[in-house]
Amino acid sequence: MPRGVMPRRPTKTGRHEGARSNAPKKSMSVEPTKGRSAAAGKSILTRFSKKLASKPSPGGASKNYRPTSPERVSEILKRLDQLYPDVTCALTHKDAWELLVSTILSAQSTDVRVNMVTPELFRKYPTVQDVAKVEPQQLEPDIRSTGFFRNKSKSVVGAARKIVNDFGGQVPNNMDDLLTLPGVARKTANVVLGTWFGKADGLVVDTHVHRISRRLELTKNDDPKKIEQDLMAVIPREKWILFSHQVIWHGRKLCLARSPKCVDCLLENICHAEDKTWSTVEKHKGARA
């Protein structure tokens, strides 16, 4: 044996050091720290477990989070005021009739497209009486580019004739009468009442309001009528008209349908939408367009 090399000796347990054992490992247990009782150790473990349980799970909401609380809604409105302080309807119009026609044409189309079509349309047919005299087919070429032009032609001519025959040629200024006009549902009626007459009888729920209200967790509904009811319950009435305009502008500029520009959005850190493209806060499952 070479000098300086000692043979390995068995340990007191009878096994060589470093030898593997097939015996089952003992389960880990919490031992009381030196100087502390077992009860103190259990207390520390209990507090640690409760702390973990109190943390929101990924994709979930904290226990005390209320998306429609007055404080959160107030903060949303405050930031919308900063972004869009004086916005109004983007449809070009000179009176209630032109606004009504433009709103009917805007269904499944864009305001930009409608504003390209209406100047020539109103030049050819300046008044509601002029439109009431024509057949729907005569309007079709003028509004073809807005889409669904046959149905829209029928609605515009039908609305003109009813306004002339039943309302003395004046667009009604109340919800019940507006809803009797062909092609007019609550969205169109709310646009006319809010923008032209300054009446807050409801909120405009178009595709932008639908999308953003769901992302902001102000509603969980998909039906426009139910969304409107949900918004009316949490948005102060004096804000109904402006809120709709602000959200519509926000939907056009930042909160886009497919790729919202979250990194540029002033509402980002109070928005928990699941389909955000960038986020500094927890995302909530189900909060999406």
Give short descriptive properties of this protein:
2 domains; 289 residues; Endonuclease Iii, domain 2; Endonuclease III, domain 1; mainly alpha; single chain
Question: Can I get a quick summary?
Answer:
The protein is mostly helical.
Describe the structure.
Helix 2 crosses helix 12. The protein is built from twelve helices and no strands. The chain has two domains: 112 residues, Helix-hairpin-Helix base-excision DNA repair enzymes (C-terminal) (Endonuclease Iii, domain 2, Orthogonal Bundle), CATH 1.10.1670; 108 residues, Orthogonal Bundle (Endonuclease III, domain 1), CATH 1.10.340. It is mainly alpha-helical.
Distance between the termini: 81 Å
Helix content: 40-55%
When the domains are counted, the total is 2
CATH class of the largest domain: Mainly Alpha
Output the CATH homologous superfamily of the largest domain. Answer: Helix-hairpin-Helix base-excision DNA repair enzymes (C-terminal)
Average per-residue pLDDT, rounded, comes to: 86
Radius of gyration: 33 Å
Query: What is the name of the CATH architecture of the largest domain?
Result: Orthogonal Bundle
Instruction: Return the string of H and E elements.
Output: HHHHHHHHHHHH
Major β-sheet profile = none
Structural class, by secondary structure, is: mainly alpha
**What's the oligomerization state?**
single chain
* Shape verdict: elongated
Number of strands: 0
CATH topology of the largest domain: Endonuclease Iii, domain 2
Please tally the helical runs, counting DSSP H or I stretches of 4 or more residues: 12
SS strand fraction: under 5%
* Low-pLDDT sequence parts: 10-60
